[in-house]
Amino acid sequence: RAGYDADCDATLVNEFAAAAFRFGHSLLRPGLARMGPDYTEKQPQVRLRDTFFNPEVLYQGNMVEELIRGLAATPMETLDEFITTEVTNHLFENTRTPYSGMDLAAINIQRGRDHGLPGYNQYRVFCNMSRAKEFDDLKKEIPSPVVERLRRLYLHVDDIDLFPGGLSETPLMGGVVGPTFACIIGHQFRLLRRCDRF
């Protein structure tokens, strides 16, 4: 195959698997729209929390068709630093046990730490951006109000975890993610293209 290099490693890089490619968690809507044959919205929407490990929701009436039409007609959520409470408070929730839901954002941050990922600032350097010395240095890639929230959460700019840092960036023109996640995802895709013989 053209461009294939048998001597390079196609293994997924840690920062791709543990942080950058999880950007889609910010794109989740709190509910799945249902639409009739004429594409008019039907109520109620199906809440995400009601679908975890619950395939029975699909067996109700014409639910599969309604959900497919809803998915096809609903615009994509835009990337931002917010993740719906359906997966930050109610992930895998047991409805018989109050407050049993898990927090996907917290899991993603902890996963990055468990995997030994360097902080967001290190990846800025890897991606040919300047190393931030203070929080205000982030304002070129991250909106000011978000930088202020990061300042309240982290003692130093070097403490920012990769997942929230990358998710906080303004998406590139014509893109879905900001420069750091675009760099990491692009790096991984180049490796897969060059190194994976399949």
UniProtKB/TrEMBL annotation:
Give the superkingdom in one word: Eukaryota
Q: Name one Pfam family in it.
A: An_peroxidase
* BP terms from Gene Ontology: response to oxidative stress
Q: Does the keyword Iron apply?
A: yes
Q: Quick check: keyword rRNA-binding in the entry?
A: no
Per its record, what are the GO molecular function terms?
heme binding; metal ion binding; peroxidase activity
- Binding positions for heme b per the UniProt entry: 25
Annotated coiled-coil segments of the chain: none
* Keywords, sorted A to Z: Heme, Iron, Metal-binding, Oxidoreductase, Peroxidase
- This protein is called Peroxidase
**Which organism's genome codes for this protein?**
Timema shepardi
